[in-house]
Amino acid sequence: MRLLKLGLLDLVSVIISVTVLLFMEFIYISPVKMTLDPRSSVKRGEHVAVVCEGRVSYSSQVTRSHKVTFFKDGEALDTRETQDITVSFNIMSARVSHSGRYKCRVEAEDKNSDSSEVLLTVTGLQTPELSISESRIPEDRGVTATCHARDELGASFAFYFYENGEEIKYSPSDKNEFKVQLNFTPGRKTLRCQYAVRLADNIVKSEMSENITIDVEALSIKADISVWPNRNVVEGDHLEVNCTVSGSNSSVHMRLLTNKWHQEGNNTVSRGLTAKPQDSGRYECILTTGNVRKTASANVSVTELFSEPVMTMNPPLVFEGMQFNFSCSSKTIMTSRISHGDVMYTISKDGRSFKADSMMTAAKSFDGNYSCLAEARGISKSSRDFIFKAKELVSTPKLEVLDKVVLGKTLRIRCRSERGSLPIRYTLKHGQQWVASETVSQPVGYAVFNVTIKDEVDNLEFSCHAQNDGPQGENSKQSHRVIGELLSFLVVHIESHEIEEGNIEEGDTLKIYCSVQKGSPPITFSWYRYQQKQVLYTKKVDNKFGVYIVERAGKEHEGGYYCNATNQSDMVKMASWKKGLIAVLCLLVLAGIIGVVWYKVKRGTKVSGPAASQTACSRPHMNLLPFPPPLL
């Protein structure tokens, strides 16, 4: 029963949905099309029809009205309610301002469709007309000029006015004419105008109007400027400049100015001053009345009585301990007015008076900021600041080795002087041979040299020379240093208690020495047995020899021995079998590149030196025997 009820409900829902669909109205708008009739480019005055075509279909087949809207450059022009498929927007007499991008939109209920944009271009602008209020005027009265574009349409214009071909006025306007007040200087003037129509994406300018001639009569009024005593004066002279008006009894505004100051007044402006070199230049007198502006000018030259003093030091480069002095003088003095003796000079140090001796010895106490003051006839001038700091002689450089000393590898050696005025030239010397030079000009600077030790017998003594611009004989210092020693050849010898003629008795204390003639400590010595790679004993020492000790020698200690040595350079020196063999057989105490010891412990009769190579003995003893090269 429940299933039957659910089935009936589903059937009812389907029937309702079908009924709604049957009574629902569908709207369809066909693609909207826009055209320009007669064409997209027309001349001024032609008729243009902007045509919009768009069909609206309804599922009920009942004819209804729809909306058509015309747009120009994105702004709505006209909207209509219509049932027509084709609707036109008519431009009866086209103007340039009608140029632009047009489109239309068709709307029905909640649906709409736009056409594509089409571009309309209208060519041809009316030639402007220019009119003026009067053609003959005095220079203090202006002219009212009007530029007309009577038949042009639109709300975005720009107007231009030209005097003798030069633009003198520009103004935008929302009307097709523009009125302006113009002022002119005396003379005959030619006036004309032009206008432009502003479109969405460009500006179209008209032709020029016809010329109009204006005669401007000059006024008798003028500006005068006078300079007393004359336009060329000497520093310290009294100078007076007057700006006045002539040809008018009425009050006029006057202005006297230079590039440094200005002064204003009515009818007359005067300026009095004590002449200084900086007062030289152009003085201008300006008269203003109404729209009239008159000018007069004068160039004034002020000659220095004496020039700004210059402070100098002799010699120009002073190191600590050197003799020096200061001098102060003016390069030019106007001798027609004063003598050299009339100019008094005073030297100051750090803002305080300083009495300079004829000769002084440079020291830190003289370091400071110096200046010189020159005075004559109430005029004083200061020199530029002179900063004095005695230069430092270069100190003995410090030589530092930055890397390990390794045969065949490059190592860096640094040279640096703690004191000394820049620039400092550093030179590295290896033994008696110059290696390289470097000039340091930066504070906290140093020179780094790359050096390669190419041979074991190379001299490892280096010296660093530092030199600056100090006095000859005092401007150079040097330091020496042996940077290390490479391992030289090894020396090996054997020592034993109660050894007689090369025999070593069982139970004796055996000492095997290993040493180098040259090498930078610490040195690490290692001892090995023949045909064994395992080290017997290793010792690091701060001298040039090491010893391996066997407290009680026995038969188990028979055999060949060898040693090697290394230092910080990681160089290894080992035995050479042939030299070691010869030395063992001949000397017992070996001297050579390496020594290797072969001995045998026996019980029996002690054997003398010549019988050391025999295999039978009457009593136990230690015997030296020849052997093959060691296993390295």
TrEMBL record:
Indicate the transmembrane segments per the record: 6-29, 581-599
Query: Pfam family of this protein, just one?
Result: Ig_C17orf99
Question: InterPro entries recorded for this chain?
Answer: Ig-like_dom (IPR007110), Ig-like_dom_sf (IPR036179), Ig-like_fold (IPR013783), Ig_Fc_receptor (IPR050488), Ig_sub (IPR003599), IL-40-like_Ig (IPR040878)
Report the superkingdom from the record.
Eukaryota
Entries under SUPFAM superfamilies matching the protein: Immunoglobulin
Q: Which GO terms describe its molecular function?
A: transmembrane signaling receptor activity
Q: Which GO terms describe its cellular component?
A: external side of plasma membrane
List, in alphabetical order, the GO biological process terms annotated in this UniProt record. cell surface receptor signaling pathway; immune response
What positions does the domain Ig-like occupy? 31-121, 217-301, 471-575
- Cite the entry's keywords alphabetically: Disulfide bond, Glycoprotein, Membrane, Signal, Transmembrane, Transmembrane helix
* Protein name (Swiss-Prot/TrEMBL): Platelet endothelial cell adhesion molecule-like
Q: Which organism is it from?
A: Paramormyrops kingsleyae
